[in-house]
Amino acid sequence: MNPPTFPSIPVETTPSVPGTLTQRVMLLNMGPSHPAMHGVIRIVLALDGERVEDADIEIGYLHRAFEKECEVVGWGQAFPYTDRLNYVSPLINNVCYAMGVEKLLDIHPTERCAYIRVIISEISRITDHLTCIAACAMEMGAMTPFIYLMKAREYLYELVEELTGARLTVSYVRVGGVKADLPAGWLERLDKALDLVAIEMEEVDRLLTRNRIFIDRTKNVGKVSSDVAWSLGFTGPVLRSTGRARDLRKDEPYLVYDRLDFDVPVGTVGDNYDRYLVRMEEMRQSTRLIRQAIRQIPGGAVQVDAAGHPLTGAQMVDAAKMGMTADLLLRTVRPDPTLEGTDKTSAHRVNAPDKTTVLPPKEDTYGNIEGLMNHFMLIMEGEGIKPPPGEIYIANEAANGELGFYMVSDGSGRAYRVHCRPPCYYLMQGMDRMIKGDMIADVIATFGTINMIAGELDR
Amino acid sequence: MTNGDSSYPVTERLRARCGDGVIECHAHRGDETIVVRADCYHQAVQFLHDDPECDFDFLSDLTAVDRWKLRQSPRFEIILHLYSSRRNARIRLKTRAQDDAAPTVDSIVDVYPAANWPEREVWDMFGVRFAGHPNLKRILMYEEFVGHPLRKDYPVNKRQPLVEERHIPDDRAGMMF
Q: What ipTM was assigned to the predicted interfaces of this complex?
């Protein structure tokens, strides 16, 4: 590989006057894996003393061929891959991918499902911002905010785990719906968790927002102007920190965002401090959104039908294995994250009624031959979801900005082409401009507030 | 997703500008799509960006599709997703790289600086060259990688030879430290 060239910098200025020092531009490789930066990325810095003269950003260290893999498996089987795009807010990736396939199929999720998707998207936005601010503060030497924010994130991860059965590799959303309805009492617990998160956030607010060291490290550092950010394809909190109020939830509302009331926080100068403030405020707005969604969500919490002898998912599987299927039709299943517990009493509330794309309730899969065949056909390779030929682009407001999917279907059971537009791809493209002129230590701070996620950057 | 206003006037305006350079236009699931000939591509992009009626000031996405398996020719299609913040409208612009053996289209980095990395990615993954790109080198794969992995004739389980350990230059002329 050729070394990167920086044509604008003089390689060596040698004033060979006796008694003076020779000035040289120093090249420093930061990364691919640097202890002060989260994620794999290599930044080649051209340094004049401690000042960054120029930078070359090299990506691709975590390339996992997401797009090629999507062409190999069925439409519905790509969800686990989307989890791993942005591993601190996997639910948003799930939602966006599902919305894309639904647009291809022209089916619509139920209202309750749309509310569930809004709630999980906003939970993901909070966990994403919490992680970003925590990591960023820690990289600048502040350990306490990191621990407080991780604690706050834990409250939400516990709920995510209860809902999906996993903390990071959730695969919760399905084409046409979601895996299972909310567990009983989950919304109340979410409400309480948000209070606890707010307490931790206020602590961190007191620790950082007026902290002299934090302000000195972030204010007027990593600045980017609104026009440059826009021309480079920036979206999300980084764009909004420059004062541009672009938010897909407002501009191109999807799901039920048009029914909910929230503000889009913007910054003024587009520096690291603004990005921190924007993220803090966005978490408060997300809390507001979740609270409204909890009040508006139709159908209420799932109540297991007492007359139908509820049984757990594990018990039902055991019964089916022993051939005791006749009784299953009369029973209902308690949603159970260990089994994909979409049960008969709630399936119709969270899933579209389309039998050619949506898995049947578990009682039917285990209890009668039609349900079993329906399930089997959808899971079987090349037989599952078959969108008509066509192409779509879908975008939603992920924690980091516009997350887009371009999908092409040729009418078969597999995607002909899936392209993911990751928000931080465009942010990293502009990072060299943001760090030019700053100090080398500021690279860490700027990198932190951009919130690069290697999984979605390299895909 | 909603479109702020209908994009059909955009097609008409582009047709008036590029003549028969506009090959086809259609809307699938509400996504307006215009396909232009490769020789009008740069002109069309410039027009969509500059024209006050169109005013597409934001490039959301640039990618490509290999149509080899669909038995369509030309093989490589470049897809642009543009957004107009003033009109809150989106449009998809497509063009097809003429030569299947050495596909090349014009780079649009001079119109949309955001196209820099996506064009490098399309070169890396599909082997489509962009004439006039300031720095067209691989971005996701390593320099020694043979072939372009998102082409349909690139097998998903193909192995690559081990490459020699590469000297990562600490500096350009042994100046450092």
A: 0.87
